């Protein structure tokens, strides 16, 4: 499979949550490639069907949780690069969430939620796994994996109820193309 651009993959998936979790079109190919590697065709179909059946409140909650997961991982090494802040601010600005929620998310860039709180917002199992892949791609973007990033990813997987073996398989799927 093709190598994915982690920033493009994250942006397309978080952005797609505004449209009911659907990805379509050439510009969103990065996100689809990652989802297929992590979830497979059946898992991706299940995720799309789940989003299509949810209320706007549930979709908004999942969208907040997905953004919070990205913020958590960006903060893992406690050195949030300017590019990461700009990416997060861009994702928040295009999230279609109410202005008050966007302000809360922007504040979370400096003070992220704890994994357990993120798990209360991000509840869909397939989306949890996909966000673990996206956050791991962000961690390896600099071709180095810091101990703090490993710890943060493990804490997020644990809060999401993802077994160690599955979390490792998700990391391996990301590293195959890194």
Structure write-up:
This protein has 178 residues and is an all-alpha fold. The chain contains 9 helices and no strands.
Keywords:
globular, mainly alpha, 178 residues, 71% helix
How are the SSEs placed, and which strands pair?
Elements: H1 6-16, H2 29-52, H3 56-74, H4 82-93, H5 99-108, H6 115-121, H7 125-140, H8 147-160, H9 164-176
Rounded Rg = 15 Å
Number of helices: 9
Major sheet summary line: none
Coarse structural class: mainly alpha
Shape: globular
In sequence order, what are the helices and strands, one letter per element? HHHHHHHHH
Strand content: under 5%
What proportion of the residues is helical, as a percent range?
over 70%
- Poorly predicted segments: 17-27
* First and last CA, distance: 12 Å
Number of strands: 0
Round the mean pLDDT to the nearest integer and report it.
80
Provide a concise account of the structure shown.
With 178 residues, the protein is mainly α. Helices cover 71% and strands 0% of the residues.
């Amino acid at each position: 499979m093709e190598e994915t651009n982690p920033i493009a993959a994250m942006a397309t998936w978080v952005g797609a949550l505004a449209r009911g979790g659907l990805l379509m079109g050439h510009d969103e190919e990065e996100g689809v490639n990652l989802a297929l590697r992590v979830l497979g065709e059946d898992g991706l179909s299940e995720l799309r069907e789940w989003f299509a059946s949810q209320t706007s409140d549930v979709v908004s909650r999942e969208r907040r949780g997905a953004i919070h997961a990205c913020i958590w991982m960006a903060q893992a090494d406690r050195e949030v690069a300017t590019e990461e802040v700009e990416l997060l601010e861009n994702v928040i600005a295009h999230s279609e969430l109410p202005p008050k929620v966007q302000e809360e998310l922007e504040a979370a860039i400096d003070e992220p939620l704890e994994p357990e709180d993120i798990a209360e917002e991000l509840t869909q199992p397939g989306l949890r796994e996909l966000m673990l892949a996206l956050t791991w791609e962000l961690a390896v973007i600099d071709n180095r994996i810091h101990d703090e990033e490993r710890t943060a990813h493990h804490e997020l997987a644990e809060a999401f109820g993802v077994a160690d073996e599955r979390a490792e398989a998700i990391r391996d799927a990301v590293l195959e193309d890194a």
